Amino acid sequence: MAENLLVIKLGALGDFVQALGPMQAIRRHHADARITLLTTPLYVPLAEASGYVDAVWVDDRAPAFALGRHWAFRRKLIGARFDRVYDLQTSDRSGWYFRLMTGAQPEWSGIAPGCSHPHANPGRDHMHTIDRQAEQLAAAGIVSVPAPDLSWFDAPVDALGVSGRFVLLAPGGAAHRPEKRWPVDRYAALASRLAAQGVQPVIVGGPEDAAAAAEIHRDCPEIHCLIGRTSLMELGGLARRAVAAVGNDTGPMHIAAGVGCRSVVLFSNASDPSLCAQRGPDVTILRRSSLDGLAVDEVEAALRLG
Questions:
Q1: Tens digit of pLDDT for each residue in 217-238?
Q2: How many alpha carbons fall within 13 Å on the CB side of residue 61?
Q3: At residue 70, what are phi and psi to the nearest 5 degrees?
Q4: pTM for the whole structure
Q5: Domain 158-303's class?
Q6: Fewest C-beta in 10 Å: which of 54, 81, 192, 301?
Q7: Which CATH number is associated with domain 4-139?
Q8: What is the per-residue pLDDT across 161-191, written as a single tens digit (0 to 9) for each?
Q9: Within 10 A of 263 (CB to CB), how many other CB atoms are there?
Q10: How far apart are CA 78 and CA 111, in angstroms?
């Protein structure tokens, strides 16, 4: 009888993209298994397009006081009769799922106390996300976690109105972490320089980035704004066709780097590239203690547009 496996990966976007290699490794190692992914709604299309899993469950993120929903989920977990769980989230929430199954726990790869295949390295929090997950899987018998094949991470983009030579700009980031953002006036200056060279600047991001995009558009009317207008798969399609991408340490830059787009990622001391930097075949990391100190000239040179 085929193995029945559960993989847990909830988010955020950059973390999900960086887990695609480990998911692919699990799929290869358990070629004949039925694999279910537990994730959040945003990532369902990616999971289904990847081919790495056979089914997707959506975590409804029940609050702590919703005991009825927790017990219903416990019945679902136990009723599925998983042989093994690969917890790639390794958070308090996924640890709670381990405890929910007390008395009927399958084999479990993660950090939950008492799990069968623990990642016991005390320095795990000081490892890059991809390296940490690779070491976790090695402890569970999966010794090879190559860079993921993201050839499937693509979608048509003709309807988005972008053609010719273009560069993606990702000026957004978490609203509560403004220190992770390069100033919008620098993005506007860079966009103007690109336009003067005949390269179309294209802004991408979610609706929460609309204010930054509006400021950039005010100073560079030539910009093409796709804020809130792309799916994640379309973002991958754009990155494949762009000559380069530049942005803050944010989810879209993980997609750009992962699909092979030349990527320039801007870090302040608010995040550590040794722990979470975007990875891909052509990634340049520019870091300053404060991004106010990063000049437009240096970012433009790193794009290597010739």
A1: 999 999 999 999 999 999 999 9
A2: 7
A3: -65, -40
A4: 0.96
A5: alpha beta
A6: 81
A7: 3.40.50.2000
A8: 998 999 999 999 877 888 999 999 999 999 9
A9: 31
A10: 20
